[in-house]
């Protein structure tokens, strides 16, 4: 096998493509808000509610998806979730009333939930015993590339054609191109290809008594402080990224008089630096403390939002896009890696599903609350101040998390005493 590409990296590429298309389509929601408001006579609170409901449904599905992946395999879940999103996007192009948007976008959210980090993390754990941080970073880069390519691409298609042509194109791309790739190329386990995971069999086997505990006592996790101090910052992460910025940055930019070209440029720059930040994060957490990385990322994100509040011309919008992009999705790899280290004796699919649920609850609040604030006050300023405050709360909780090495040392010490 020396000199040959390990099939684990093919798995990463397939998931990357699926995430780019599915999650990129979801992140393009902000591009459709104003066209929908104009066509269906909706206000910002109503369009934000569509996003909020979709985030809630997406989040609720995550623990369920985690269990389904354990039972049915990641290939089935990811491939048919991709197909479902493509079908619903195509149907959305024919809607004539707001209630149809609510229903179809809710179904889209189920499909998006099945093409999420829950599936990706399980596959990385299955296929990688080394370089997991990098693999998780590459997967998350699919979100960034989707944001960089599909969001500004949607803006331009809407500008030159209309929103119906744009979303139909997304649907057809998912059904005709992405779905067949995932269905044909994805494998659940290295054994399906008759090979070992990347890095070989380096994991310690789980003892029989521990395995029994894994299957019967998973709810013990909810009594662990480290679970909540990992999950609540991830909720805040969802509020400030996919909720606030991915839903409202485009309307915010339009509100401050920036042109379509400037807004598209800012979104593209943010997405490009998001990719850089994601990949750097994945590399760094393989070598450094994930907990300390998270503290740095949340502090930087808070400071970037302060810049957005006080510096509102086009130049500073681009600078904000660079800084925020570097720390946007970069939190995912260290959060997921900490989850696999803290809770490796439990169902990884279920644990990551719970974390994703928290992220989507935060996203739902981040999409809806700023929309309501804008409807009432005609400004996003209050929502931005709240975001800065809660980000510093996330910093404090991450500082209070233990290092995984300390837990392993404590566990070995307790085992020795027994």
In total, the number of strands is: 0
Structural class by secondary-structure content = mainly alpha
What is the CA-CA span between the terminal residues?
A: 43 Å
Report the order of strands and helices.
HHHHHHHHHHHHHHHHH
Identify low-pLDDT runs: 205-216, 410-418
At the fourth CATH level, what is the homologous superfamily? Answer: MFS general substrate transporter like domains
CATH class: Mainly Alpha
**Please, how many helices?**
17
Main pleated-sheet profile: none
Query: What is the overall pLDDT average?
Result: 85
> What is the fold named in CATH at topology level?
Growth Hormone, Chain: A
Short description:
This protein is mainly alpha-helical. The chain is about 80% helix and about 0% strand. Mean pLDDT is about 85; it is low at about 205-215 and about 410-418.
Question: Explain this structure to me?
Answer:
The protein has 418 residues and is mainly alpha-helical. It has a single domain, classed as Growth Hormone, Chain: A (Up-down Bundle), CATH 1.20.1250. The protein is 80% helix and 0% strand. The chain contains 17 helices and no strands. It is globular. The C terminus is likely disordered.
Name the descriptors.
single chain, Growth Hormone, Chain: A, 0% strand, 17 helices, disordered C terminus, 418 residues
Please describe the topology of this protein.
Elements: H1 7-27, H2 29-40, H3 44-72, H4 74-92, H5 98-114, H6 117-127, H7 132-160, H8 163-185, H9 208-216, H10 225-255, H11 260-285, H12 290-310, H13 314-327, H14 332-342, H15 348-377, H16 381-399, H17 404-417
Helix pairs in contact: 1-6, 1-7, 1-8, 2-3, 2-7, 2-10, 3-4, 3-5, 3-15, 4-5, 4-8, 6-7, 6-15, 7-8, 7-11, 7-14, 10-11, 10-14, 10-15, 10-16, 11-13, 11-14, 12-13, 12-14, 12-16
